[in-house]
Amino acid sequence: MTSLDDLPLRDNLRGKTPYGAPQKTVPVALNVNENTHPIPEAVAHDVLGRLAAAILTLNRYPDREFTELREQLAAYLGHGLVADQIWAANGSNEVLQHIFQAFGGPGRSVLSFTPTYSMYPLLAGGTDTRWIGVPRADDYSISIASAVAALDEHDPDIVILCGPNNPTGTPLSLDVIDAVASHARGMVVVDEAYIEFAPEGTPSALSLLSKHPRLLVSRTMSKAFAFAGARVGYLAADPAVTDALRLVRLPYHLSALTQAAALGALAHSDEMLAMVGEIREQRDRIVVRLRELGFTPHESASNFVLFGGVDDPHAVFEALLDRGVLVRDVGIPGHLRVTAGTEAETRTFLTAIAELAAERGNRMTS
Ligand SMILES: *Cc1c(COP(=O)(O)O)cnc(C)c1O
User: Fold this and answer.
1) Is the CB of 224 inside a 6 Å radius of any atom of ligand 1?
2) What is the pLDDT of residues 147-191, one digit of tens each?
3) C-alpha–C-alpha distance, residues 146 and 135, integer Å
4) Are 232 and 76 in contact (CB under 8 A)?
5) Whose CA is nearest to atom 4 of ligand 1?
6) Which phi and psi (to 5°) does residue 162 adopt?
7) Which are the contacts of 280, defined by CB distance < 8 A and separation ≥ 6?
8) Low-confidence residues of the chain, pLDDT below 50?
9) Which regions span the lipid bilayer (predicted)?
10) Ligand 1 in contact with 169 (CB < 6 A)?
11) What is the atom index within ligand 1 of the atom nearest the CA of 117?
């Protein structure tokens, strides 16, 4: 048996660890920010009918241009967008990979504000793009002044702004996006994976697209849309950007089954998004209760809460797991992240963490 170290692996992949959120079968999985509500049965039946029809065509390659899907995604996004401005792939992670392949690469750099989504540096490594992580303020916000200063200092080829930010939940204002897009030389990606969970009326970076031809807005069906298992992410940008991404995608990258399933879900977008309000309520409930328990939850515009005041995150992670609740240790000292689940899942988490907090209190007073 050889080991990884014996193989002629590319230098920039040596010593790296793959993306690895634990996948465990537990009663309450609140670790990867999925929508934990099941797909409505009526939607499932419609998707099934479309899959059945698609199966009869699987002897042929799918529509390489996923034309109908792009049209429906444009209609869903609104903002006057048309199909030529839409791109899609197997999850927004693949959309991001296409962006790195087209606009990053050897000799080029990507900048983002940390802590942020752990896949960005991995995608940079995989495409030989130099990763520049610029620390956020203590409250994880980004100011216009600090963003502009970072651009002046590093002059990156790609900037990624994650708003709301994962793993912190921090909202991202349109002013910051506008300033970065105005100031950056290269491409500016806004990752709006969690935008549907932001407060009602929060403007999307989509509203800035007509002003900035190098602005790319990435979305996913994996979170609010309750479709993580189908693997569909998408992007809106200038039509020239989708022309660039076409150069790096594999032929027929979106299977006929994926396209059919996505079209089925989009035809029922209201039903698919019906639980978003309820999930926001559970998120807010988590913030309030964790604060009562003496933790320090951060402001969140997403479907998860990052909270500090955890003396030993690893021990609390394990103790929650013993109680059937899986959360995420995102590697920020003293912190854990929890996804807002159903009412019952959220109650199970809050009961478990309250017990742990009480035990800790008892230990400290005894
Ligand atoms: C979950 C997530 C995504 C979405 O990934 P998919 O590949 O679409 O499932 C993208 N960006 C961020 C910041 C995320 O947290």
Assistant:
1) no
2) 999 999 999 999 999 999 999 999 999 999 999 999 999 999 999
3) 10
4) no
5) 92
6) -100, 115
7) 197, 303, 340
8) none
9) none
10) no
11) 13
**What's the pLDDT tens digit per position in 35-53?**
999 999 999 999 999 999 9
- pLDDT at position 366 is 55
From-to residues of CATH 3.40.640.10 in the chain: 41-271
Rounded Cα–Cα distance for residues 155 and 153 (Å): 6
Q: How far apart are CA 13 and CA 128, in angstroms?
A: 9
Question: Range(s) for CATH 3.90.1150.10 in the chain?
Answer: 4-39+274-363
CA angle 84, 51, 61 (to 5 degrees): 55
For residue 222, the ligand 1 atom closest to its alpha carbon is 9
**No. of helices (H) and no. of strands (E), the chain:** 12, 12
**C-beta of residue 111 within 8 angstroms of C-beta of residue 161:** no
**Nearby residues of 248 by Cβ (< 8 Å), 6 or more positions away:** 98, 101, 102
Is the CB of residue 192 below 6 angstroms from any atom belonging to ligand 1? no
Residue of 114, 117, 160, 328 to mutate, ligand 1, most atoms within 8 A of C-beta:
117
Q: Can you give the pLDDT at residue 363?
A: 67
The predicted structure's pLDDT at residue 1:
80
Task: Provide the CATH topology of domain 4-39+274-363.
Answer: Aspartate Aminotransferase, domain 1 (3.90.1150)
233 lines ligand 1 (CB under 6 A): yes
Residue with tokens 């950056």: 184
Sign of CA dihedral 142, 147, 150, 151: positive
- Ligand 1 centroid to Cα of residue 365, in Å, is 42
Mutate to test the pocket of ligand 1, among 166, 190, 196, 339 (most ligand atoms within 8 A of CB): 166
For the CA of 167, the nearest atom of ligand 1: 15
Output the CA 171–ligand 1 centroid distance in Å: 16
Amino acid 265: pLDDT: 96
Structural class in CATH, domain 41-271? alpha beta
DSSP one-letter code for 328: B
